[in-house]
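Running low. Invent one:
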Amino acid sequence: MLAIYKKEFRQFFSSITGYVAILLFLLANTLFLFVFPSTSLLDAGYANLDPLFELAPNIFLLLIPAITMRSFSDEFKSGTMELLSTKPLGWWQIVWGKFLASATIVLISLIPTIVYYIAVNQLSAIHNNLDNGGILGAYIGLLLLGCTFTAIGVWSSSLTSNAVVAFLVAVAVCFVFYNGFDALSKVPAFVGKGDYYLQMAGIKFHYASISRGVIDSRDIVYFASVIWLMLYLTKTSLQRKIWQG
């Protein structure tokens, strides 16, 4: 698994594409948080990082599928997937190696956003007046969200040899998991008739819960379950493609 992890990690940063993807994520956050008047923290009147944690999931909808879209699609396209399957590696080792490498890249993209915390803290009228507990919880929630999107992206990449198709499938599935259930719960037919359970089925409900600074075991179990399910589907998809030749 470690060999797969190292290969995938090096491959992402072997071209300028990897660096551009992370830079675009940071640039988009910076523009929305400090430049555009409608979302600028400088015009908010109070010190907090809520706009970052509201904005980042929407940027993740595009960033993470871009990171994961070549995970398996390039292996199928180049014909190396069959060779990889003959190595002394289990299917879970291959899947987890790819997943952990992509999740590490997501983590790397989040680390520079700590600069936003430092900047807001320095610009606030009262230093160290930020809700550190809430911010830590929001970062944990954002990392779990990123890992969940990563698992979905890796699964999407296992479905096709076309990286663009894998990207589009990942964006669509991530969007449905994040916004779809919440939007469906607001349909009049479901209001008061299971709307709460529909919200619980979506990622946004659990992400918002953790972002309040309260680490609930139910939210952790939810994210872990979705990640495991998507990785299991990835393994099943790979096995089926190899068996079918």
